[in-house]
Write a structure and sequence with these properties.
Blueprint lengths: L6 E5 L2 E3 L9 E4 L9 E2 L3 E5 H14 L5 E7 L2 E8 L13 E8 L3 H10 L2 H7 L5 E7 L4 H37 L7 H36 L4 E7 H12 L2 E3 L1 H5 L3 E4 L3 E2 L5 H5 L6 E2 L14 H11 L2 E6 L2 E6 L26 E2 L7 E7 L15 E8 L13 E10 L8 H19 L6 H6 L5 E3 L8 E4 L9 H5 L1 H9 L9 E9 L2 H7 L4 E3 L5 E9 L5 E9 L6 E5 L3
Parallel strand pairs: 9-21, 11-16, 18-20, 20-22
Antiparallel strand pairs: 1-2, 1-6, 3-4, 3-25, 5-8, 6-7, 7-8, 9-10, 10-12, 12-22, 13-14, 15-16, 17-23, 18-19, 19-27, 23-26, 24-25, 25-26
């Protein structure tokens, strides 16, 4: 027989008894968006006498903006809450004899999400600075050939003009010398005119020379654009540091086993310089801070980033002992330590009643990264950006009676950071000249490694221009991604590794509501995990749980794997 679950209540360590204590139980609801851990069945309590005085004394001493620790204890287990005074405690509404106050979990999932949703990475960096990485990149434009031809024409025109200008300069110098050296009669006017012409010719030649040098530099930069660096940070580090800011730890075998997942934020620019003015220059005033900012809207706060990670990895965030844990949702089934005895849930007629998990069924499952119109490289190899699956019947008797419904749409708000896999055709053409230059310089005792520098550009990130609109995701080590990075982080890889368990046939379940006996030991084990096993070893996913004060039984709803979806199959329908 289950032992009684005797409850006690404490305000700041002092035992009290709420007026409505007999109505206070505990509940759990895993059907909501947040992974809610065990909590009290009430959101407010009514306090009298000593308990009321403790609250009023706290307000007199510390004001109303600091909550008061409140503990609900069941035998040796405690649920830590706090009295939230800013949520309008109803003091006068109940007269002088009692006070009704709202209570919230302390260090709970809800508290964690409230804080995470409001924490920007910019704010976090002020007190908990991030360790950022230097991520090399190249600008590889889509009109290289056009620009090269235009610059070559400009260089040719300037060179020709420079040659002609130098020839004319020589003539001007000769004429000037003749004028100043003719006999003893000096014609001042002629000398001044010749001098002005000579000066103008010198300025003209200098201007041509400067223009030619500038065009030559642009040609070199176009063919071999310099490697520049944006700053970024690994996903694991960003989340760990931000959780630390909130007073929580963070664990995830998903990210800990693949720490290479890295975010490259949208570039920023200082001052009031127009983005349009910068788009068409080879210079850069753009930079990244290494962590997402407001311009990275979909991941600008810790809460937003964690929601994205839950979608990407088919995961759930749970808070256990003040540590936020991200794992694929079925991870918790393997950690179950509670066993219960199932019975027929309609005891009066000795039958079972259930429903199916129809909310989990789907016809179409679509996962997709973003492509960025401001960076044409993100539209390369589009097949890796998305995947689409469909649930289809295996055998059909009447096709018009088949009805499979539902859409699972998972938009991943990142664009790929495109890896430079090879040299461009322009670089290939110029590579022999780089080899020749190295040979000549090294022959005369110099030290040139132009060829190695050109080949060393392979593996870095390439973008079409300095500014891009979509936050980029990378899988990098030392700033560079492996050649097969799309196979590692592509949409279909994520589906096969993390989402395949959501297929209708594999995830078909029955849902039951039942009253079961529940001991104190079972109760404590359930707190951090909503998966239990029955007397036959079947895994049960607890959906809701409710126990009334000092009872011996709990009302639960749970889901158990079933096989009614056997006549379906999942096929890939994209490509």
């Amino acid at each position: 027989m289950s032992e009684n679950l005797e409850s006690k209540h404490f305000i700041n360590g002092t035992e009290i008894r709420p007026k409505d204590a007999d109505k206070i139980g505990v509940k759990l609801d895993w059907t909501k968006d947040n992974a809610i851990e065990l909590e009290l069945s009430v959101d407010s309590i009514i306090l009298e006498n000593k308990a009321k005085k403790l609250v009023l004394d706290h307000i007199d001493t510390y004001g109303i903006f600091e909550g008061i620790p409140y503990t609900f204890q069941i035998n040796q287990f405690s649920l830590e809450y706090f009295i939230e005074l800013v949520d309008d405690p109803r003091i006068s509404g109940r007269g002088d004899s009692s006070i009704e106050v709202n209570i919230k979990r302390r260090g709970s999932v809800n508290k964690f999400w409230d804080d995470a949703n409001g924490l920007s990475f910019s704010a976090c960096n002020k007190t908990h600075p991030f360790t950022v990485l230097d991520l090399p990149y190249l600008i590889v434009k889509d009109n290289q050939l056009e620009m090269l031809i235009m610059l070559a024409i400009s260089a040719f025109t300037l060179t020709k003009a420079l040659i002609e200008g130098i020839e004319q300069l020589v003539i001007s110098i000769t004429d000037f010398i003749k004028i100043v050296s003719v006999g003893t009669v000096v014609n001042t006017g002629q000398i001044i005119a010749a001098a002005l012409l000579l000066i103008a010719q010198i300025i003209y030649v200098a201007a041509l020379l400067i223009a030619l040098i500038d065009v030559t530099k642009q040609i070199i930069e176009l063919i071999f654009p310099p490697i520049r660096y944006f700053k970024g940070a690994t996903v694991l580090h960003l989340v760990q540091r931000a959780c630390e800011k909130l007073g929580f730890g963070f664990q995830s075998s998903i990210l800990e086993n693949q720490p290479e997942w890295t975010i490259l934020p949208v570039p920023l620019i200082d001052g009031e310089v127009s983005i349009i003015d910068k788009l068409f220059t080879l210079d850069t005033g753009y930079h990244t801070l290494g962590y997402p900012t407001a311009k990275d809207g979909a991941v600008s706060t810790l809460g937003k980033l964690l929601r994205v990670l839950e979608q990407m990895f088919n995961g759930k965030i749970r808070v256990v002992n003040n540590v936020a844990i991200l794992e694929r949702w079925d991870y918790w089934a393997l950690q179950s330590g509670v066993s219960i005895t199932r019975t027929l849930n309609l005891q009066n007629v000795r039958e079972n009643q259930w429903k199916y998990n129809s909310g989990d069924w789907w016809k179409r499952y679509y996962m997709h990264y973003q492509w960025d119109v401001s960076d044409f490289h993100t539209m390369d190899r589009l097949a890796s950006l998305d995947c689409e699956y469909s649930t289809e019947p295996v055998s059909v008797n009447n096709a018009d009676l088949v009805s499979i419904k539902g859409l699972v749409n998972i938009p991943i708000p990142f664009a790929f950071a495109t890896r430079k896999n090879s040299l461009t055709w322009v670089e290939e053409v110029c590579l022999p000249f780089a080899k020749l230059a190295d040979s000549v310089v090294n022959f005369f005792g110099g030290n040139s490694s132009l060829e190695a520098q050109v080949k060393g550009r392979v593996g870095v990130t390439m973008i079409g221009q300095q500014y891009f609109q979509k936050t980029k995701i990378m899988f990098q080590t030392g700033g560079r991604q492996p050649e097969n990075y799309r196979d590692i982080i592509g949409a279909n890889t994520l589906y096969q590794k993390y989402h395949v368990i959501n297929q209708v046939k594999e995830n078909f379940k029955r849902e039951y509501s039942e009253v079961v006996k529940f001991s104190t030991q079972q109760f404590e084990l359930l707190l951090d995990n909503n998966f239990v096993t029955d007397q036959n070893g079947n895994s049960l996913e607890i959906l809701t749980f409710e126990w009334t004060n000092e009872g011996k039984e709990a009302e639960i709803t749970y889901a158990i794997k079933s096989n009614e979806g056997f006549n379906t199959k999942t096929i890939r329908i994209d490509g």
